Amino acid sequence: MADPLAWIPEQLELLESLERRRSIHIRATQQGPSVDWKERELLNFSSNDYLNLAADPRLEAAACEAIQREGWGSGASPLITGRGQNQASLEVALAQFEATEAALTFASGFAANAGVIDALADRGDVILSDEKNHASIIDGTRLSKATVRVYPHRDLQYLENLLKQCSTFRRRLIVTDTLFSMDGDIAPLPELADLAEAYDAMLMVDEAHATGVFGENGRGLCEQFDVEDRVSIRVGTFSKALGGHGGFVVGSEPLIHWLVNRCRPYIFSTAPPAANAGAMLAALKIVHDEPQRRTDLLAKAKWLRGKLREIGWSLGDSESQIIPVIVGTENLAMTLSAQLHEMGMMVPGIRPPSVPDGECLLRISLSCGHTQQHLDTLVEALTELRLG
Ligand SMILES: *Cc1c(COP(=O)(O)O)cnc(C)c1O
Q: Which residue has the CA at smallest separation from atom 1 of ligand 1?
């Protein structure tokens, strides 16, 4: 009998011939801004560990303590018996940190986005989604039975025209990343809130890259723009600046109760381990107690953006710790990434399907653990590569 999976190696070969076959590697250790990679220590400009918390001993200690009290696995979904003391405490602390009525934690940010959109919009509703939204938002729109309209990146005029045509739908849901994960640019949140109010739409935002980084208290860009009261659904993740794992949603009590009853990845997925909840309680405390981490990070990012633009690299509209060096072709992005690797720096080249064809880039992500010397090293390398 013919192998029913024979098509897969053929398709993999096709990817190989296009030089688009990707594989995963093992890194040894990751300590702050450096990473051991195939027996070489590289400066790490590729991680989303923006506040340098992933290897913080305080998170480790909190995780160990949680394991000692609750064990490792949670054994069931939260609605059955999986919700332990650490997870419950984390949801309370998170709502407090985010200044919302309630919070709900998920196994991942991906699951949160995909599940929440599906739970909020059904047949007869319409979802309006920015074209550069994260894959998990896109998958949420695909899971939902609602009609989906994608608007060009941050194009308010286009969105308003769409909204005008959407008045006959039962409900409208506008959904956007606040800080876009590849371009490092920012959604026009006050204007989006204006449109949501004018056209009677729900507004959902994904703060994945902004939590812990932006806003006076580190709550993200809704806080920075002072629109928290106007954004009814906020998704975030523990897996980036907070240095851990898992996603969350914050908002009103009724929203959270609805999700507990209707959000499938919440209902049908085993609760995250207590150790993660314990560590994330510690991370929230650090974000509160050590605001210098975020101010320092943003100051370094601003300095680096200035330098790189000065040398003549195109950084698009980046205004954050995510700094894309937009080079265009896949070949150039991958070559530059390899050259930087040779020079001792890990800066990933980003290519389709993560970005559209012809918009390939080097994605620099900064951490508050990078020193001025680390930044100087990167600037020197990118100066040399620019001239070369
Ligand atoms: C990383 C990311 C997610 C997914 O979060 P995980 O917790 O890693 O699953 C969601 N949205 C955006 C914008 C992201 O960048």
A: 208
CATH of the domain at 265: 3.40.640.10
Q: What is the DSSP letter of 315?
A: -
Tell me whether residue 167 is one of the annotated catalytic residues: no
Whether residue 95 has pLDDT greater than 70: yes
DSSP 8-class letter at 203: E
CA distance 347 to 359: 16
Catalytic hit among 47, 129, 134, 240: 240
Report yes or no: 202 and 233 within 8 Å, Cβ to Cβ: yes
Ligand 1 nearest-atom number relative to CA 110: 9
Per-residue pLDDT tens digits for 118-164: 999 999 999 999 999 999 999 999 999 999 999 999 999 999 999 99
Q: Which of 113, 143, 141, 134 is nearest to 233 (CA)?
A: 113
Are 121 and 232 contained in the same domain? yes
Tokens of 106: 């998920």
Residue 314 lies in domain = 26-45+291-387
